[in-house]
What we know:
Layout: H1 11-20, E1 22-26, E2 29-35, E3 41-47, H2 55-72, E4 80-86, H3 95-107
Parallel strand pairs: 3-4
Antiparallel strand pairs: 1-2, 2-4
Helix pairs in contact: 2-3
Amino acid sequence: MLPQAARLKKTKDFKEVFGKGRGVQDGRLFLKARITNSKEVRFGIVVSKQVAAKAVERNRIKRLLREAVKGCLPNIRAGYDIVLVTLPGFSLENLQDAKQKVSSIIKKTSLLKP
Length: 114
């Protein structure tokens, strides 16, 4: 599970990332990141009803993405708030698929440590 300190929870934080952040898209997954003064990386995940109609399915996608992010967390530069947004048509088969999609989109950005 993703540590509590590494999660975005407040609506205000999500709005700041969407308002001031820069985004990148890879398939049906969209990443929006914003630089902060913090010394940690925080993630938020958005899965809408257009992606999965049932709450059970949306929560499963979020759990898989959180676990995938947890594996990438040590390789990401500190001082960012990041939101992963799933777009309609997004699907995950298993944890390996989630890890592959998350690492692919993070490699497209400049968030990785040198």
